[in-house]
Amino acid sequence: MTLDKDQDLRELFHDLQLPDVDLTGKVMEKLYAEQKKKERFFVKYKVSVMVVAGMLLTVSSAFAFSYQTLTNKQGKVVFEEKTLEEANYTSPSLDEQLRALKARDFANKVLKAGTAGVFYVVSNIPDMKTYTLDKPLTFTDVSALRTKMKGQSVKIFDSLPGKHNFEHATVFFTPITDVNPPTPKEQTAIAEKLRKQAEESKQEYAMLPVEMSKDHWRILSTYKKGGSAIQVAMSRTSGKETFLVHKEWGSKREKFVVKGVEMIYTDFGTGHNIQWIYDVPNSTHTIRYHIETGKQINKKDLIKIAESYLD
To answer: From its phi and psi, is residue 90 left (phi > 0), alpha (psi between -120 and 50) or beta?
Structure first.
């Protein structure tokens, strides 16, 4: 199965995490990346913010959208949904969107796989904004992926129920500056340093390398069987994730318990997904599992796939 455009965009926004909520800019980056046949990407920190462009995703449904939360074993909310309005989201200007595109282009050119950097792009906008961007690692060998993630308390399977076999995966380790963000004063100093660096080098941008966290990450895996595909996303964080949605976005939602684990099931018309939280032993960290597929796999079988991760 080839993911349709709506589903592909959905994946982007499941993946998206930025120091500032920059929705429209990321959409433009995605469209630009499709033209260039480049990969999507991901990042974030303690109170991570993931953005869904509800206004761009056409989901036909007669059901009103319901906002959901997931908690850890201590009852603390570690995943929540909010509207763009509740998050006080402001759409970036066209110039800001173009600057974000340039930053991503520079990152694609200079970063090596598995590295990240803080980018400053020369522009007429006076806000001194910087972009923390990274380039992921890719795997086509499931054994190599399992070795890379050894000790991370994450389950990585050779195949899933229904004989869907591992196809490939992308791993995004989180920049340390997103795990422990700099203070406003430190951020201003970084931006000024990069501005001067760009000016002195007479380049359109400047970049400061950033160390990657070893235990904050996101994995995007694809399993296939003929024309059927299953997308499995797993993200490890130490804080709360806030999933931003458009208030008029419609989909059928359910919350139920499977083997003692609370799960959220979503039917968005062209496909469906299920997600839940796993508490990392001896840690305050959690891993959120998110499994998504088209309608050739029914709800019952999707739940069976989720159950395989609970055994």
So the answer is: beta
Torsion of CA 252, 168, 104, 14, to 10 degrees: 20
Q: What are phi and psi of 88, to 5 degrees?
A: 55, 40
Distance CA 236, CA 202 (A): 39
- Per-residue burial over 37-62, b if 16 or more Cβ lie within 10 Å, else e, is eeebbbbbbeebbbbbbbebbebeee
Q: What is the pLDDT of residues 45-101, one digit of tens each?
A: 333 333 333 322 323 333 445 678 999 999 999 999 888 888 888 899 999 999 999
Q: What is the pTM of this model?
A: 0.78
Angle at 181 between CA 178 and CA 185, to 5 degrees: 145
Would you list the domain boundaries of the chain? 5-308
Name every residue whose Cβ is closer than 8 Å to that of residue 258 and which is 6 or more positions away in sequence: 276, 303, 306, 307, 310
Q: Distance between terminal CA atoms of the chain?
A: 28
What is the C-alpha separation between 131 and 116, in angstroms, rounded?
Answer: 10
CB-based contacts of 31, cutoff 8 Å, min separation 6: none
Q: How many alpha carbons fall within 13 Å on the CB side of residue 51?
A: 25
DSSP-derived secondary structure letter, 297: S
Lowest mean pLDDT among 9-13, 70-74, 260-264, 283-287: 9-13
Predicted confidence (pLDDT) per residue in 127-167, tens digit: 999 999 999 999 999 999 999 999 999 999 999 999 999 99
> If you average pLDDT over residues 279-297, what whole number do you get?
96
